[in-house]
Amino acid sequence: MTILELKGVAKGFGANPVLRDIDLAIAEGEFIAILGFSGSGKTTLVSLMAGLTQPDSGQILLRGKPVTGPGADRGVVFQSYSLMPWLTVAGNVALAVDATMAGRPKAERAAKVAKYIAMVGLAHAADRRPAELSGGMRQRVAVARALAMSPDILLLDEPLSALDALTRAKLQDEIEAIWEQEKKTVVLVTNDVDEALLLADRIIPLNPGPGATLGPAFKVDLPRPRDRSAVNHDPDFKRLRAEITEYLMAVGVERNAEAGHARLLPDVAPVSLGGSPKAYRDAGRVNNPERYVEFSRVKKIFPTPKGPLTVVDGFDLKMHKGEFISLIGHSGCGKSTVLTMTAGLTEVSEGGVILDGREVTDAGPDRAVVFQAPSLFPWLTALENVALGVDRVYPRASPAERLDIVSYYLERVGLADSMDKKAADLSNGMKQRVGIARAFALSPKLLLLDEPFGMLDSLTRWELQEVLMEVWARTRVTAICVTHDVDEAILMADRVVMMTNGPNARIGKVLQVDIPRPRSRRALLDHPRYYQYRAEVLDFLDEYETGAPAKKAS
């Protein structure tokens, strides 16, 4: 029986068409995943289903009756959580429970609040206010609040995107368990192909607009419950995953490919602030290329009211010049702490980080950092943001040469036509492209990437991974990338370094990735050892979900 139906739905804002010709019938108890990309109208689609906005044309029917407004029969969780800052976690969830269970005994309502708070792993934080919670924890409150309404249809607009990999996996399991027990109808908008495959009966892409339309439906016949490690060995999972990925890449990944790069990089040498230009002109002269970066029993200890807390405990690793390392592990394992110590932004408590024979003691232009959130000056153009660093690193180059350096890297990341746009007018993906261009333009000894694509949808993330790989292949700069994305880690790295859970985190396992370069996502899916590598990383992460003891690095 069809519970929700969209017939010829179109929606636009002013002269901008957002959605057109949306036809979709959802059966009662069905779990639908819509793969929506940035700017494709996915939030508009959810808002239409929820009755928060009305279509310009077409019909939206709930059990055969037109949807004219929101209702308790549809629970909604948006990507951006919306909590009452003066209420506790329990108070925020109680708002939904009290609205849907008015007149029920207080103890019964309190039990329901406690049930859903515990379900999202926040029982220990029930009395905290939103200001005391991380972004991920706040989103978990929003999920709990929607579930507590016991809606007939659960509308989820990327509800887990702000969460770390472990919490995201746990909530995916909880959402599936709720669906199995209560057979609720669920519409999940996500940018994660694996999340869709683990949860959905049908997967439907929302093709990028303007005037976005639904693509072909992919039926998911994988048996339930679906274990994320076990499906990695399932040929049907691999086939379906490849089909969906190929489709998504075909409709968008190459849509912004730059045709040709005529500009040449000027032959000028960067200098460290206060350093000797001659040392940098002596290309290739390094102290020890096989031990270019050394982490020697690195520890990071933070003072807390309860005493010293050792977050990273004895991180030991040697990297050769030109190597690309991916650093992966669960949230709180100290990945970003290792990166910020390497950048000189966080003090090393014990041990040391050596870069090209010199100990890292503070920040410097020989290390370029790209963070998850692009840190640009919004009133400056893309070109001006990149030029800020280039002007300092290349003081002996002429203004024309410095301009060529900036323009060269902005072209490489696909921003040839957007150099003069202010950062405030750029999308998140474009801002991150500027960040990547800026990092490479500094000609650093070491490139440090901290979840550089974590805030982006799959389509943009895939594009920028390809961009990063293309530019890196030309520079071969030594690089470390912190990521929670298993596929990203394997795609980019020569070695995947897996960290045990914190506190007292250390290296648990090192995986050598023997896949020829240059690499692409298509080539990765076709490589005979790819799923073997993927299984090794997933198995490690599964093992450390419960805080398994550390192993020696291999």
Architecture overview:
With 554 residues, the protein is of the alpha/beta class. The protein contains 16 helices and 21 strands. It has helices spanning 42-50, 89-100, 106-119, 135-148, 165-182, 193-199, 235-253, 277-281, 335-343, 382-393, 399-412, 428-441, 458-475, 486-492, 521-526, 530-543, and strands at residues 2-13, 16-27, 31-36, 57-62, 65-66, 74-77, 153-157, 185-190, 202-207, 213-214, 218-219, 293-302, 309-319, 324-328, 350-355, 358-359, 367-370, 446-450, 478-482, 495-499, 507-512. Strands 3, 6, 7, 8, 9, 10 and 11 form a seven-stranded mixed beta sheet that branches. The chain has a six-stranded mixed beta sheet with strand order 17-18-19-14-20-21, sandwiched between helices. The protein has a four-stranded antiparallel beta sheet with strand order 2-1-4-5, with helices on one face. A hairpin with a 2-residue loop joins β15 (350-355) and β16 (358-359). α10 runs parallel beside α12. The termini are far apart. Mean pLDDT is 84; it is low at 253-261, 271-284 and 550-554.
Compact overview of the structure:
By secondary structure, the chain is of the alpha/beta class. The chain has helices at residues 42-50, 89-100, 106-119, 135-148, 165-182, 193-199, 235-253, 277-281, 335-343, 382-393, 399-412, 428-441, 458-475, 486-492, 521-526, 530-543; strands at residues 2-13, 16-27, 31-36, 57-62, 65-66, 74-77, 153-157, 185-190, 202-207, 213-214, 218-219, 293-302, 309-319, 324-328, 350-355, 358-359, 367-370, 446-450, 478-482, 495-499, 507-512.
